[in-house]
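Query form — protein CDP-alcohol phosphatidyltransferase family protein

QUESTION: What is the three-dimensional structure of this chain?
INPUT:
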Amino acid sequence: MTHDPTNDRPSIAELKAVAQPPEHIARYNAEHWAGALYIRHLSIYATRALLPTHITPNGVTWLMILTGLVGALAIPFGGLVGPVVAVVAMQLQILLDCSDGEVARWRQRFSPAGIYLDRIGHYVTEAAIPVAIGLRADGWSLTDPGDVGGWTVLGLLVALGVLLNKAFTDLVHVARAKTGRPPLEDVAGTARPKASGMAAVRRAFDYLPIFRAFVAVEASILALAAGVVDAVRGDLLGTQVLVVAMVPLIVATAGGHLLGVLASSRLD
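ANSWER: The structure tokens for CDP-alcohol phosphatidyltransferase family protein are given below.
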């Protein structure tokens, strides 16, 4: 449908028709489950509130980046306050992550810089969370800084795995662009392994999505659950167990992702 991109006060129906087109919401990999479940129902109202401020789509993305980073940095705070702040911040981050694109589609303002900043936001947040969990496991916080040790080192190693795992996705697009191939369609078929054995393994992981432990929303919830265990016990065992568990999980996630990319048609 045609619309006036300078109109800063559209109705919700008008805005939804342009900013939340079905083909965008139906993307296979790009839409978080929380988006379809409840965030998209809220983000359209946030987007409508943002339009009269004349904030740019990239400005909304910067807010998304800042919110995610603040949420991650809150995790090492003692007690349950830090993890609760992190959970709330990651919910707000995903809402802003929806709204930046909605603002861009309404105003018809698209740029490589916006996609670039969006990727940076997810890289920074999702790598910062395991580092913050490691710091918490070492008893470190912004209000009570001290020496850090092995738990933080493990958190850093997990963060490295998270960055590699995300790079494995983005490098597919780099490799295709450098060889003159068209952009990859965001549909299930492109991610399906060609070998039947690998396809069976992938289907098994669909039922046990361990990769979600390293997505900001789920990672913050895990940090909160560990914090509850800490609070009940009066120590940091819950967070320490979480750090230990994250190490083999990120190895399996990143390793499986790399094998999945090489075994699929994404590089054909």
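ADDITIONAL NOTE: The CA atoms of residues 201 and 256 lie 9 Å apart.
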